[in-house]
């Protein structure tokens, strides 16, 4: 049917509380038990068919209980990826011929399925597979993913409605075509919402997709794929391949029909993908669109006028929720000496030291484990270096225990050296570096912090003095794509704080906004002249 429709006005999904004794807590606990009791076969999905990939097996475990295997996935082979690419190309003509309303309806339906019957499944899979507490899973795999799906439909409509002007006797139009070819979505372990958004955003705009999730997020990714199917997504529109990505790099990245890459993950991997495209640039049918959101070294800078309680709460939540494994996590703080000595140091160390990290199925815990052995080893190596560094004082933490799960304690380290690795290296875990400065040095500290790290993702300033907030905001203008005044630097909400950073943090195409979706269309400008001229001569020719 060809008609003009107005899409439903999106609203942010309310966050469930899962309070002790509540029906929602009981329902989720039952689902957690059900998911943990099964050893899942975590397949690829190509052209609507599920099958095991042909490469080496990979065990997907609970990070907080690494002996518990949740399922087995396999590395995809070159042939698996080639099949997925072929399926995406085959599905493209019918998918892009479908009206925007029909495509949008599928993703709106997916949002309602996640809000309803699939909510516990996605939350449970995210908790068990990625070691998120119920609060952290709820804001991710339920609310943020639902929000992406609902808001993207409205943003897509806004893009389609944006049309050029027309002069008398002429009708100018934009035909917002999808890209020619297929889009490759490569997603990180830490957010189920990002994993669901990266393939679905280009698909909404009419593209077909090959999606490779992270092996450590594969349990939740498996169920996101089932949601898309249950919502009526036709076979081949989103094809999921599994494993470490090597075959994707060998096959999909160099395919002449690669139309775009939608990536979130580390800076190093994105730069590798970009280089691969650069090396093959003359082999593609069109220039592939590159959208990548990557690492961060996110700051909190306090002024003497800051509220100490708000500052400590923001540091604890910003640095230690989800074990610091958010690209937005506070990982470096700059605190004036008077504030530090009048209680902030002791309260921060006390609260951080009291946080409980454990089995996330016990809802009383504040956090879980880091994602895998590699992350665990990286943190213990950092602790070894810090302990042997005279510029560093550990206030709490710097211990780790992998006997049951990959547990790393919330760690606060004070360093007298603002050029220390604590202030420029992404660890992606629960380590907060603190530099304490003389009260009068605020402006010079802001200037140093602005460029101390190669990243520019998130950052926050705490002050009660408006002139200070304004001055710091100017000095830090290019140091964070998401900038917070008197709030923690994590927890962006779709439609409210469009998310993304610049410099080494990515292309800043703002997930959860029209600015991301516009990368997945290639407009054709059309001009129709109703009564075309029939004489080639101009008036000045007499
Ligand atoms: N800026 C953001 O919005 C944002 C959001 C979430 C995470 N992150 C960043 O992601 C990182 C953590 O996530 P991660 O550990 O999953 O990142 P990662 O870079 O290790 O992996 C990301 C994805 O790339 C795949 N991959 C790795 N090598 C590949 C290759 N050669 N070819 C193809 N695919 C390959 C992985 O399997 C995974 O699916 C952190 O740096 C974090 O800051 C950024
Ligand atoms: N958008 C999330 C971070 C995503 C990266 O890991 C936040 O704002 O905390």
UniProtKB/TrEMBL annotation:
<protein>
    <recommendedName>
        <fullName>L-glutamate gamma-semialdehyde dehydrogenase</fullName>
        <ecNumber>1.2.1.88</ecNumber>
    </recommendedName>
</protein>
<dbReference type="GO" id="GO:0010133">
    <property type="term" value="P:L-proline catabolic process to L-glutamate"/>
</dbReference>
<dbReference type="InterPro" id="IPR005931">
    <property type="entry name" value="P5CDH/ALDH4A1"/>
</dbReference>
<dbReference type="InterPro" id="IPR016161">
    <property type="entry name" value="Ald_DH/histidinol_DH"/>
</dbReference>
<dbReference type="InterPro" id="IPR015590">
    <property type="entry name" value="Aldehyde_DH_dom"/>
</dbReference>
<dbReference type="InterPro" id="IPR016160">
    <property type="entry name" value="Ald_DH_CS_CYS"/>
</dbReference>
<dbReference type="GO" id="GO:0009898">
    <property type="term" value="C:cytoplasmic side of plasma membrane"/>
</dbReference>
<dbReference type="InterPro" id="IPR016163">
    <property type="entry name" value="Ald_DH_C"/>
</dbReference>
<dbReference type="GO" id="GO:0004657">
    <property type="term" value="F:proline dehydrogenase activity"/>
</dbReference>
<dbReference type="Pfam" id="PF00171">
    <property type="entry name" value="Aldedh"/>
</dbReference>
<feature type="domain" description="Aldehyde dehydrogenase">
    <location>
        <begin position="56"/>
        <end position="514"/>
    </location>
</feature>
<dbReference type="InterPro" id="IPR016162">
    <property type="entry name" value="Ald_DH_N"/>
</dbReference>
<keyword id="KW-0560">Oxidoreductase</keyword>
<dbReference type="InterPro" id="IPR050485">
    <property type="entry name" value="Proline_metab_enzyme"/>
</dbReference>
<feature type="active site">
    <location>
        <position position="293"/>
    </location>
</feature>
<comment type="similarity">
    <text>Belongs to the aldehyde dehydrogenase family.</text>
</comment>
<dbReference type="InterPro" id="IPR029510">
    <property type="entry name" value="Ald_DH_CS_GLU"/>
</dbReference>
<dbReference type="GO" id="GO:0003842">
    <property type="term" value="F:L-glutamate gamma-semialdehyde dehydrogenase activity"/>
</dbReference>
<keyword id="KW-0520">NAD</keyword>
<comment type="pathway">
    <text>Amino-acid degradation; L-proline degradation into L-glutamate; L-glutamate from L-proline: step 2/2.</text>
</comment>
<keyword id="KW-0642">Proline metabolism</keyword>
